[in-house]
Design goal:
about 30% helix, Aminopeptidase, 7-stranded mixed beta sheet, alpha+beta
């Protein structure tokens, strides 16, 4: 079994990133090439995970200074002076349960520590429910701080925060 490799996104990854993202909707929001290009410019970090030559996961991480209109992100901007925000993490069905999410989040915590960002922020769908993501975030040490319905009455997200302890 090949070792999982984490590296930064490269433009040649676009097709694979879009495919992994599409495979994870509705747990993550849809993404087209235009939105992907915007993330390329806005992301503080855009790690991808390779299993051999196959891209099996990615995350998009933003800081408070990003020009990103998401109401979920803007909620954290109003709440915190400095933070690292996980806009989305998507893992292919073939790689789930292999530690891909832990590797990505572990690197995100280290990046937040190094940059003096005291909190890692994310949200998880509660309507429609995403119990696997909720369990993952609970195990990783996130706490629910609010619930919102930013898009319509049939969708809801739990706003999550994980305190980053400086060494």
């Amino acid at each position: 079994m090949p070792e999982l490799i984490v590296r930064d996104y490269q433009p040649g990854d676009a097709r694979s990133v879009l495919a992994v993202n599409a495979d994870n909707v509705p747990e993550v929001g849809p993404m087209d090439l235009e939105k992907l290009r915007r993330f390329e410019g806005e992301a503080s970090r855009f790690p991808v995970v390779l299993d051999g030559s196959s891209l099996v996961g990615f995350a998009i991480l933003l800081t408070e200074d990003a020009d990103y209109p998401s109401p979920n992100f803007r909620w954290f901007v109003a709440r915190h002076e400095r933070f690292l925000y996980v806009d989305r993490i998507a893992i292919s069905s073939t790689a789930r349960g292999r530690g891909v999410g832990q590797r990505i989040y572990g690197a995100a915590v280290e990046r937040a520590k190094a940059a003096g960002r005291p909190v890692l922020c994310a949200e998880v769908n509660t309507l429609p429910p995403n119990p696997a993501s909720s369990r993952f975030h609970d195990r990783f040490g996130f706490a629910e701080v609010a619930r919102m319905r930013p898009y319509d009455p049939d969708s809801e997200v739990a706003m999550l925060e994980c305190s980053i302890q400086a060494d």
